[in-house]
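Q: Protein A?
A:
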Amino acid sequence: NRAESWATCEVCEGAEEMTEPLKQCTAWLHAYFCEPARMKSLPVPAFHHPLLQRDSFTRQVLWTLLRDVKFGEAVSYKQLADLAGNGRAARAVGGAMRTNPIPIIIPCHRVIRSSGQSGNYGGGNLMKEWLLSHEKLQKEKLAY
């Protein structure tokens, strides 16, 4: 399986010089790719991007996605619009996904079309499918 062929993750240079937020982000990404069971015990890295600071529907959608759509799950654009408080805003959810400043950590790859097709992804459709497959495989392993 292609998802299992990615064997190791490591931070090679400058780890001792990292700031605390960067260390948190590195630990979170390492856990995401290599040890998903640890993710529940790690804090989500702090976000300082302006898009996530100002009050907007995009911010609401991104925080809702981060909070409510768990590892190994997927949600449609319409379902995410409902969760964010405006069920008629599925197109706006698509716009929020396109402007997501922190892909993978804010898991826009988990938002799919109502038909079940994966839909578009800024990192490319193959990357989106790989991320979804990785999560599904890891979630199945954790269930055993």
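Q: Protein B?
A:
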Amino acid sequence: PISLCWISITSGTLRRRSDDDDDDRGKKMPVRVVESNAPAQVSGSDPGNRSPLPRSSLLAAGQAFSGTQNVSNQQKEEAWRVNVQIQGVDLEHGYLCGTMEALNVPMADTPVITFWEGEIVDGKNYTFNTGKWEATREDDLRHWSKFPSFAPLQGQVESDGGRQLDLSNYPYIFMRWKEQYFVNVGTDCGLTIAGFYYVCFSCSDGSISGFYYDPNSSPFQKLELKTVNEGRSGFSFSSYELQ
């Protein structure tokens, strides 16, 4: 039988992989965002002028979330406790970043923390089509359709990728979260950050649901988070650097 190990992300990302996965994809790397350099557009995005998504008070720098990620498989039912904190938000460029922490990872002596960067689906900077990270159009639709709030948009997305959709006042914000590096453990920890999350954020109550995608991991590992009433310590920015 293939030996499997669990994978997690700071404050709420979990997944497993086979032992022969490429650990190099989890290497620590510097992250820089500069105001003059907007994130690269996904193929099919509309460069036309559109209003940015509403700046929800619950999707802001310093906001914390807590919940679980279901990492069950055919042999075992299991969910891990996870925490997420947003560290920066730049709605103009469809960007946010933060940390995730997995608290009860069976093979780890301490909580496992990762740094992630997010793409906000706004029709200007990013669309529903991922176009990278080994995700096909079929993978995108299969995961987005798991969110009930995507149902009213699905027909248009299937037709033209959603290029004609105006999401500026939609009560949900769709995102992709991609872990970039481990914060407190090395790449030999037995975990991987090769995949990414399809994420849906509710503007009304701040709840977050997500599904992890990695062709080499258990499918549809579900992330469920709720806001935590804590003092905010993040930042909004025009530029920043993490080393």
